Amino acid sequence: MIKFEIGKKYYCTSICDHNARWEYTVTKRTEKSIWIAENGVKEKRVSLKEYDNSEMVYPTGKYSMCPVLRAERVVA
Predict the structure, then answer these.
(1) The 3-state secondary structure of the chain, one letter per residue
(2) Are 67 and 57 in contact (CB under 8 A)?
(3) What is the pTM of this model?
(4) pLDDT in tens, 3-29
(5) Which residues of 22-36 are buried (b: 16+ CB within 10 A; e: fewer)?
(6) Which of 16, 19, 31, 69 is the Cys-Cys partner for 12 at CB 3.0 to 4.6 Å?
(7) How big is the chain by its Cα radius of gyration, in Å?
């Protein structure tokens, strides 16, 4: 299982436009949730889900065509 790690930055892209990219830093975590900060400004708690042997979250909420942040997408 690939998991989110505190202090690492992860990215997700838009379904409609692959050039649209959001980056989030994990600031805290528990077994069931993580806290993420976008550009070091807004920190919010999101619930962890599992998909395809990886942790994932919905950083802006769950809705049609929403971005999905996955643990394997680490910013290099």
Answers:
(1) CECCCCCCEEEEECCCCCCCEEEEEEEEECCCEEEEEECCCEEEEEECEEECCEEEECCCCCCCCCCCEECCCECC
(2) no
(3) 0.90
(4) 999 999 999 999 999 899 999 999 999
(5) eebbbeebeeeebbb
(6) 69
(7) 11
Are the CB atoms for 59 and 24 separated by under 8 Å?
yes
CA-based end-to-end distance of the chain: 20
Query: If 0-12 CB within 10 Å is exposed, 13-18 middle and 19+ buried, where does residue 13 land?
Result: middle
Q: Would you put residue 55 in left (φ > 0), alpha (ψ -120 to 50) or beta?
A: beta
Which position has the token pair 């379904």? 15
Please report how many Cα atoms fall inside a 13 Å half-sphere around the Cα of residue 76, on the Cβ side: 0
